[in-house]
Amino acid sequence: MQWCRFPPFDVWPPLRASAMQSSSSKLLEKHKQVVDDCQSSQEAQRVLRSLMHDYWAEANRPKRVQPLCKDGLVELCVYVLDTYLTSSLDDIRRYTCGALYNISRQLPSSRVVRQRMLSAGAYPMLPKLLVSDLWKVRFYGTLITAHCGLAGLTSQQRVVCSLESIGWLCECLEKTLGGEGFGGGLWSIEEVMAGAASLCSLPDNCEGFLAANGAKLTLEALRVVTERQGSEYTDELRAITMTMARISCDGRFKSSCSPSAVEILEQLMSSEIVAVKSNVMSVLANIGSEKASLEEAFKQACASSSAKWNRSQLSVVGKGRVGKTAFVRAVLQKPFEHTESTIGMEGMTCEVSSVLSGKMWWKEQSNAHSELEMLQARQAAAIAKGIQMVESDVLQGLESSLERGRVEGEEEGEEEETTGREKAGGPEGESTGGASDEPSVVSEPVMSKYNQDLVVECLQDEGMEESVVFELWDYGGQDVFYALFHLFITRYGMFAVLFNMEELMSGDTAVRAECLDFIEFWLSTIYLHTSQASSESCSPILIVGTHKDKVSNPLHHLFISRILDDKFRDHIAWPHVQVYQQNDSLFAPSIAEDTELLMKKLFHSMDLDQSSTLEPSEVEACFGADADPSLVQQFFSFIDLDRDGKISFTDFRAACTQALSFFPVDNTLGHVDPVIPHILSVIEKIALNSDYIQQRVPFAWIKCLDSIKQTGQDVLLLSQVEKIASECGLPLSRKLGLSREVCGMLEHFHHLGKLMHHNETSLRDFVIARPVDFLIRPATQVVCEHDLHRTAQQTEARRLTREWKSLTQQAVLSKKLLPILWKEYQDRSALLEHLCVKFGIFIPLKPEQSDEAMSFLVPTLLREETLSPVADGVLNCFLLFSSDPDFLQQEQRGVWRREDLAGRFVPNSLFGSVIGQAIAWSQSTGGAQQKLSKTEAMMAFGKHKFLLQELKEEKCFRLVIFVQNPKNILARLTSIVQNVLDKTMPRLRCYTALSFASGGGDRFFLDYQVVCDKVREQEGMWIGSDHVEWTELRKELGEWLPSNALLSSYDVFFSYRQGDFDSEVVQKVYDILSYDVVGEEGRRLEIFYDQVRLKAGRRFDLDFMKAMACTSLAVPLVSSHALARMFSLNEGSAEDHVLMEWCLILELQLSGQLRSCLPVIIGPVSSDLDRDPIGNFFADDPLARLPDIVPRRTVEEVKKFMSNNNLVPSAQLEERTVRSIVKELTKNLAVLTWTLADSHGQSVLPRSDTHARELFGLFEQVAKSVIKAYEAIPVQPQVGKTGGDRGLPALEVDEGSTPGDTRLKAKEPSVQELMEEINRLKANQVQQAQSGCCSLM
């Protein structure tokens, strides 16, 4: 005889005792005395027998089961059985088991019943029922156990029932079909078949059922029920067809299935009952009926090309040790256990793939099938059931975004002609024209292998089409991990923010404030990373209070909710926080019962009436001695509706039934806590109503995701993914093209947590298939609280005492530690290190010696330390942060008092990220060695020193500058800050504020840009009650105001096409040159850099050509990026402004107006460790591929400019082709950047070290080359106004003319000077023609 396999019974009492304490039972309290008296009183036995018989009968009515459960019938049954299961009171035992059985019949469809069965401790009672001496109790126990198994209550056990019990079930079915009773009572076909269906959910039980003639009895039941017409037999058909679906794959069922039975089943295919139809389809498919059409449904599903994928994310966040991992275990129905603090993020998908929601519980989903197989099987099942598909398509959304982007781009392009300098072009060979006349979507069927068993499995799952697969994340709570979070937080999904309720009930105001600050941090962080500008909405948020086992009083919960409401009601994310509707919860015990129990506890009375009142002192006592009296008084006033200084029973009850702004949970109960299923229900409802869930996802995308996973690679290049996508049938949209569609696909998968890809320029080349395994786990070997976490690798690394001390005390990671910390990742350590640098986790530090091993700054590990006090009178300003688009729109625009800044938000990781990027810039510009702490950084850009501080209380940064010219440092630092924000939290903006004292002595913050605008427009502004004239603003704040007016002449002009690396080269070289001096008098170079010099409202093309005409040295950046747009030029193409500059350089060289030209030639830039960081520009002869045509419109613009400014164009101007212009330009003495990079790489070092450090000195070397070229220009007598000492003919700006009509006026040099210059240029040209392109280095 084979019995249920359960753990030993003695492991259950503690769980049951805990569960019993957490559940209130009105019926148990009412009848407990009668139950206890049965042992000594015949009358009590009679009463209890009658009572349980009545409950047995009442529970047989499905609509009465949930109310009976809320009243505590399950607790009463468990108590009776626990007391009398081994007694001789057979009727009481039988009726009680019957009542519990009737309740269990609702388990497969009711979460409420399931939760009460769990909390009452019914499951631990089952092993005793199955070994009872009374066979009816054993029979009931079998059925109850079967229903429990189907409902997931026995998810950790194999519910294999005895052959004896299965035989009784078949005998009961046979007698019921014959109209006879069984076991002393009448049974319905529905309840017997429901028991059979639950029983057969396990293959071992199916075997016993078939052996006991179950197939023939089930077919007979089908015949009997279908002969009775009427909708009242819906439940019978559902139970019968479900049983048949579970046994139909067995040959004994097939052989028992007569033609008449098959005919009945085929007729039921047209049933309007979805469950019956899907079960019948499964049966017919298993027995090989041609009408089962599952394969046709599968083909139809595949032909639809897309389907709802039903994927989402749930991220669990909170402080360390708050109970996040325990909460995740409760969600997954795992018992509570103490765990170590989570290191980094524990993606549950790394351990259990994913979590599938369902009617009853969430279960871990296996990876037995590919994503495409599962999706198409689900879609086929939905089609077979007749369920309609949704209409919206994610691909259509991408196309719409593209169209919107084109319109916006066209509008911006029109403005750019008058407001900015357009230099950037689209990718080479990629069309940016209007929409094509071809169909937008290419329909190519994508099919996985047909798996009938999988389709049948989906058919049998009633809720499969509405189930959502969640990627469940448990985030580390220590603040050192915050720098990683922006890589994973996305808008698809929702967030559970956990806090410890004990902290808000603490009498320690500092503890309470810290808890509230942490909640505020996450509310702000979630809003920043998930909000959309178009709707100002963010991802849904659930606030969860843990430790309910210690803070269980409903008054305390209401009190905490009040604190949260008062603190955050004005927070921008608060409207997206979900509310816990206590009185609507079907899972929690009755609020009235809890209120009554609490009132009894407070009044020490068992008899309450409506006249009962509560004094303030009693409320204060309820909150404990540590409670803040002022907060208690506020709370008392809140629920004192009559305002009479007392709380009435009515007031109290009304207060306790209010909705809470958080969900209180007891993690020690695990999934038994009744609030857990309520949370899951809220999450499911939100997910199913989300737009991204309603969209169809193309099968080709899912196939591509499967293919990416099947490569087995942790990281793929974007080009590899594009190749895989092409093999999977992409692009589906001709409007989008392959590159755009792949990026859109990767963005969709990234938001759903399936992989990681960032479209930001420096990161977009990498697609991380397994981000937790590949990036987070190894990164958190370095980025963690080393005093709190200690792994085996970290223990070993501590043996390198000096290096470990440097890491833990100075946040400097030596390369010597990585082979130890990353022992498990040696085969990919170079790529991993490279990605950590790319993502800003590590910042490479410039080695002091050429053969020294590389080291990295890890900003998140910096310690709290005050570097130096700041003296009075130093130049300082403040960087403020806000996601509010109306931040500047105060009563006085751009003017804030200090108190106005309360409530601002500065992400914890922002300061570390900023100083990391600032250090990288400082090293590239030759800055002095820095001193760093967690909240302060002393460093320099070039020779200009400054201090950056994070002011925690004021929630801003303070910038202190130790030189008299702060403008360059401010501009560069604010650019770095905004660049960090754009990459990590694009909704947050940075505002520079200058401190200003009014006449009354009040201190204000003034927005820097507003001040600059007022001074430029010569307007005053109101500051407090004073009106300050613009002259006063210029006097007080002059050091900060920009001096970017156009000059009459320049020493150096940078000509480049805006792009990631080209722009970086110009920015850093400009910074280095700005901090340097030339000549005997040590003057500063005057440099034309468009980002500084060009002004809004002027013709940028005229301004940069005028600047070029009065420059001594032109520095054109000739790069692969600069040439990309030129390859597609033709005679009728619009003017190319970079080509225009280069053409003008040649003309000015010929005329002698330009004294020298130093091209900086840059080959292909690569982040691939297997390639050089900068390749040889001439390796693939790009000049030969340039079009050999004259760019007419470009040439016309140059000719027009020269004619308008008294400059004579050369005869060659109108004959120059695109190719000849670039070729002539590169014949000048040039800087070959790939040779500079090679000269700074060390071949004796690891390849990753060489690659990382090759660019450290590149920018300084380019700057030195520029200075060398400038100083090599012959000194000639100055004529008129000059821009330096190189003898450049001065060109004056006519200040009286309009901005768009400014003319350059040249002062003619002598004839002798011109002849000497012409002869020098001719000699130079001959020399260049003989030698080709020359390198300055």
UniProtKB/TrEMBL annotation:
GO terms for cellular component: chloroplast. GO terms for molecular function: calcium ion binding. Gene3D superfamilies: EF-hand (1.10.238.10), Leucine-rich Repeat Variant (1.25.10.10), P-loop containing nucleotide triphosphate hydrolases (3.40.50.300), Toll/interleukin-1 receptor homology (TIR) domain (3.40.50.10140). It holds the Pfam family EF-hand_7. It is found in: Plastid, Chloroplast. The lineage of its organism: Eukaryota, Cryptophyceae, Pyrenomonadales, Geminigeraceae, Guillardia. InterPro entries: ARM-like (IPR011989), ARM-type_fold (IPR016024), EF-hand-dom_pair (IPR011992), EF_Hand_1_Ca_BS (IPR018247), EF_hand_dom (IPR002048), P-loop_NTPase (IPR027417), Toll_tir_struct_dom_sf (IPR035897). Residues 401-442, 1278-1304 are annotated as: Disordered. This is EF-hand domain-containing protein. Keywords: Calcium. The keyword Calcium applies. SMART domains: EFh. Residues 627-662 form the EF-hand domain.
